[in-house]
Specification:
Number of domains: 5
Strand content: 15-25%
Helix content: 40-55%
Largest sheet: 9 strands, mixed
Number of helices: 36
Shape: globular
CATH architecture of the largest domain: Alpha-Beta Complex
Distance between the termini: 95 Å
Number of strands: 30
CATH class of the largest domain: Alpha Beta
Length: 994
């Protein structure tokens, strides 16, 4: 007998004012607009109903009514489950129907209705949803049904963005959504966690409308419907949505995400931007790149700091700020690179069809974006592009000094941001070779050589006169050759330039901390020449200052290691002749026929010779040289601008390959409380991708413990499993190695027995290892929760461990490589002998990662919380000694003799201790200096007081009385007595007033 033996009921719609729009309402941090609690792990089950209850029975009936009214024949049921409702309401009538769900549910629908179209899809995966789009070959209107689905999704953004794209691409389409209204479910506390364990979160009617309107969807009508055919209370939200291209563009413009009429193709990520900062470097590059692409085709995500930055300025500059996309708590608490990743993920929700995400490598701001793409958290259709401007080694080379521990962590982020990108763009071969020298490995197919764009107009070429001015243009730093400049001009025979007709030295650029030597040489120049200084000009003002002097000046810029200074283009386009050092990337920017004139060796003798050569030119020859150089460089730059405009071309992004391989979960156990094991099993049971097997390795727990463990696992674990018992305790490393030896899959995943994996823990690890053969391990973020608290509530403000996955030397002191709850390629781990079980000290996971990275193997970081770490008072970190653990690290470093590994540990840890002591000493010295300053102020005040006329008269009288000891003593005693009487009278007065 059919379970559909009931009459359908109309949706109870209602007229009301839509809630306010806010981009933050679509973020995970705002729980996607729900004000109720959310689950960390929800139950995943197959939709196999064995009773006659039909959940939300009127939703598909209403969807068919909409299809008939609109004349729509294409229907997509998203999260179709067992398919019985879809088949019942849409059989017959000539409908083209597709059911979409994950594999577990589709196995039931395929078995029951093999003639219907069922498509497997992970509804939280950008790439799975993109694959579905390829199967939808026509653009006819469609009715999409999302009934009793959205509440099950940890992150609905990929799916909502995909459905919105379908509505836009197919004019006249409709989306029907239903989900329980938690305020109508008779909860004791309407904001508590959903009672249904398969629901991540639940919305109220207003909250869900707010989420959809903040997502850019147009709500056609909304109201409530029945939860099932027996429900006396209409407790389910019903919303019908549409979205046209015109409507969505108007929405994006209103919220400040879109600034033109075209769909953007490129997202540029930066902390610097010309127009907000006075910059001639990265900020200018980003602006010029947008000029090349067109402002309508490129959007810029700005995450920098600027004084007085307002929404009006952002709109005027056509920028999207991270503060527009993120909640304030993220901006305050997250590292910059994680802020950018979260902002990019939020940006992709609104612009899922962009083709590139581009960032600069400086400070490693894009490292998490690169890691997210490699591990499947971003669409594989997008190309990640790193623009190489200069990283830590570049700065060290330019300053000819090492930056050391101060850049530990930063240098590794920069390396990851370059190596992890799909394309790495170098403006000069100099920089590309410098990166290769430093060990930054970019495959040839990912390596692009492309100069910077610049669209500045060339100034009008004034008639030349005799040269009387020498200009220095740039920051007064050693890197820019300021020391070399002064040595060239004032080091020998300072008056030689006066003999050649020079009257003025002009310095254009900001000051930095000087030194006595450069200050003294500048004073020497002041004695013989007029010295003009312009220290606080904008870039345009600096260019104007150049132009005013161009016809009678040469510009001296002995930059010692610059990559691609825009300053050279500024100087050339202002029609001033540049004289630069033959170093860095500068020689590649100057046309070959002018290098013998415009380049000098980076020493004072060569610079003086080149200056004299230019000063010896006649006015006519100087004018011809300016005209020829400027026209050649301007034409070259126009060609470069056209190349940038076409970059990166139509080449398809490199998609991650591979789709095979399963994982075995290894769980080491040693007297772990069984309620912890039960929490762990709950997380394992509800993985979005199931492991092939779970291997528990009991490391010689107490005799009666194993029986309890076996009973618990047998009762609760829904997957194949084995329990292996050690006769003697081997420690964590030994237990894991037993699991490694027992594994029969391509990958193994370790989980500590008192921790809890989130739903996508296995899926994300397996995707990374399947798709990237170079990855030996895959490690997600780890979030802590306190023992004794409920792990299954999403909380904000908890500690999150965010490893980098790279940096052998930096990780000698602090583990930035990874944690224990991670996945590994089984063959690689066996090749390296697994975990070091020669010691039972802690840090066995840290030691393994050191061994892998020291051998050149890659650790993939999944920049997303994948597992919950239980903080226990008796954990290893709180009870084990660190000295044996440090010895373990030294024992597991490869590439150096064992002795050198121990000395490296000793030197680095000793150096850090000394550095910490120096920092403490500097702090104390600063405090003493403040105290000294206060004392000096008090002394000065006392001196001023003592020098007052009345005080001087009293002091003079006292000095005279001192010549008569008896009289002086009597006067002093009288004075003391009088003072005491006055104090008593004052005290008595206060008491009387009280």
């Amino acid at each position: 007998m059919s379970k559909f033996n009931f009459e359908n009921e109309l949706i109870a719609t209602q007229e009301h004012e839509l809630p306010a729009i806010g981009l933050h309402f679509t973020t995970p941090e705002r729980n996607f607009s729900s004000e109720g609690e959310a689950r960390s792990v929800n139950v995943i089950y197959e939709d196999a109903q064995n009773n006659d209850v039909v959940w939300q029975p009127d939703v598909l009936w209403e969807a068919r009514n909409i299809a008939d009214r609109q004349g729509i024949t294409h229907v997509i049921d998203i999260g179709c489950g067992g398919g019985h409702k879809l088949v019942h309401y849409f059989q017959g009538g000539g409908y083209d129907v597709m059911g979409i769900d994950y594999h577990g549910s589709l196995s039931l629908s395929r078995a029951a209705y093999p003639e219907w179209q069922w498509v497997e899809c992970d509804l939280t995966s950008w790439d799975d949803l993109s694959r579905i789009s390829l199967e939808l070959t026509n653009t006819a209107p469609v009715v999409m049904i999302l009934s009793d689905v959205i509440e099950h999704l940890t992150d609905p953004r990929p799916l909502v963005a995909w459905m919105r794209a379908q509505l836009i691409a197919r004019p006249g389409s409709r989306l029907v959504v239903s989900t329980p209204d938690r305020t109508l479910l008779d909860y004791e506390d309407v904001n508590s966690r959903p009672e249904n364990k398969s629901h991540v979160r639940e919305w109220s009617f207003t909250e869900l409308e707010r989420y959809f309107v903040s997502s850019g969807l147009e709500i056609i009508r909304s109201g409530h419907t029945r939860a099932n055919q027996y429900d006396p209370v209409i407790s389910t939200i019903f919303i019908e949505c549409a979205c046209s291209e015109e409507f969505y563009k108007e929405f994006l413009i209103d919220v400040g995400l879109l600034h033109g009429d075209e769909w953007p193709q490129h997202l540029l990520v930066t902390t610097e931007y010309a127009g907000i900062h006075n910059t001639g470097g990265i900020g200018t590059f980003v602006r010029e790149q947008r000029e090349s692409y067109g402002y309508d085709k490129s959007l810029c995500l700005f995450g920098g700091v600027a004084n007085g930055l307002t929404q009006e300025i952002l709109r005027a500059e056509k920028l999207v700020s991270t503060s527009m996309l993120l909640v304030e708590s993220d901006i305050q608490s997250l590292p910059l690179e994680d802020q950018f990743l979260k902002a990019v993920q939020q940006f992709l929700f609104y612009f899922p069809d962009i083709s590139t995400i581009q960032y600069g490598d400086y400070q490693g701001i894009g490292c998490r974006i690169a890691q997210a793409k490699q591990t499947g958290l971003l669409p594989q259709t997008i190309r990640i592009i790193a623009h190489c401007h200069g990283i830590t080694h570049y700065l060290e080379n330019a300053h000819e000094s090492w930056l050391g521990l101060s850049h530990s962590g930063t240098a590794e982020k920069e390396k990851i941001s370059v190596e992890g990108a799909d394309l790495a763009v170098f403006p000069t071969t100099f920089l590309r070779e410098l990166y290769a020298e430093a060990g930054i490995n970019v495959p040839a197919e990912n390596n692009v050589l492309l100069r910077y764009p610049l669209h500045s107009p060339v100034s009008e070429l004034d008639a030349s006169t005799k040269i009387d001015t020498l200009i220095f243009y740039g920051k007064r730093s050693r890197m820019k050759g300021y020391d070399l400049l002064l040595d060239s001009l004032a080091g020998v025979d300072v008056e030689q330039w006066k003999k050649a007709g020079i009257t003025t030295i002009c310095l254009i650029g900001p000051k930095v901390h000087g030194n006595p030597q450069t200050d003294s040489m500048l004073e020497v120049l002041r004695e013989h020449y007029q010295v003009e200084e312009f220290c606080n000009l904008s870039r345009q003002q600096a260019i104007d200052a150049l132009h005013e002097r161009a016809h009678r000046a040469i510009c001296l810029m002995p930059y010692l290691g610059d990559n691609h200074p825009y300053a050279l283009l500024d100087v050339a386009f202002s029609t001033t002749i540049p004289l630069m050092a033959n170093a860095g990337g500068v020689p590649e920017m100057i046309p070959e026929e002018f290098r013998s004139i415009c380049l000098a060796d980076p020493n004072a003798l060569s610079f003086r010779a080149r200056i004299h050569g230019l000063l010896s030119l006649s006015s006519a020859a100087f004018h011809d040289l300016r005209e020829s150089l400027v026209s050649t460089m301007a034409q070259t730059q126009n060609d470069i601008n056209e190349l940038v405009k076409a970059f990166p071309g139509d080449q398809q992004p490199k998609l991650l390959a591979g789709n095979t391989g399963e994982a075995t979960i290894i769980v080491p156990v040693f007297n772990t409380p069984l309620d912890y094991i039960e929490d762990l099993i709950f997380g394992i049971n509800n993985q979005s991708l199931k492991p092939a097997e779970v291997v528990f390795v009991d490391d010689a727990s107490e005799e009666d413990y194993v029986d309890g463990l076996q009973s618990l696992v047998k009762e609760h674990l829904l997957l194949p499993y084995r329990i292996i018992r050690h006769p003697q305790n081997k420690g964590l490393a030994g237990a894991r190695n037993t699991g490694l030896a027992a594994a029969q899959t391509d990958f193994i995943i370790n989980i500590d027995s008192d921790d809890v994996p989130l739903n996508d823990f296995v899926r994300d690890i397996v995707f990374s290892l399947r798709s990237n053969p170079q990855h030996a391990a895959a490690v997600p973020y780890l979030c802590a929760f306190d023992d004794g608290t409920d792990f299954n509530i999403v909380r904000s403000g908890m500690y999150v461990y965010r490893p980098l996955g790279d940096g052998v030397i930096a990780s000698q002191l602090d583990n930035q490589l990874g944690h224990a709850n991670a996945g590994f390629r089984t063959s690689t781990l066996r090749e390296f002998g697994g975990w070091d079980e020669s010691s039972k000290a802690m840090w066995e996971d840290w030691a393994l990662y050191l061994k892998l990275t020291a051998a050149g193997r890659k650790i993939a970081i999944i920049p997303k919380i994948g597992c919950l770490y239980r903080v226990r008072p008796q954990s290893m970190l709180r009870t084990y000694k660190t000295w044996p653990a440090m010895r373990r690290l030294a024992n597991n470093m490869l590439g150096l003799p064992r002795y050198e590994n121990f000395r490296l540990q000793a030197m680095l840890r000793s150096y850090r201790d000394v550095t910490a002591q120096e920092a403490e000493s500097r702090h104390r010295l600063a405090a003493l200096q403040v105290e000294f300053s206060i004392l000096q102020q008090e002394i000065n005040s006392s001196r001023q007081e003592l020098n007052r006329g009345g005080v001087r008269a009293v002091r003079s009288l006292a000095n005279r009385l001192a010549q008569y000891p008896a009289l002086f003593d009597a006067v002093r005693k009288c004075g003391r007595t009088g003072w005491k009487i006055l104090r008593k009278l004052a005290h008595l007065g206060r008491r009387l007033r009280g």
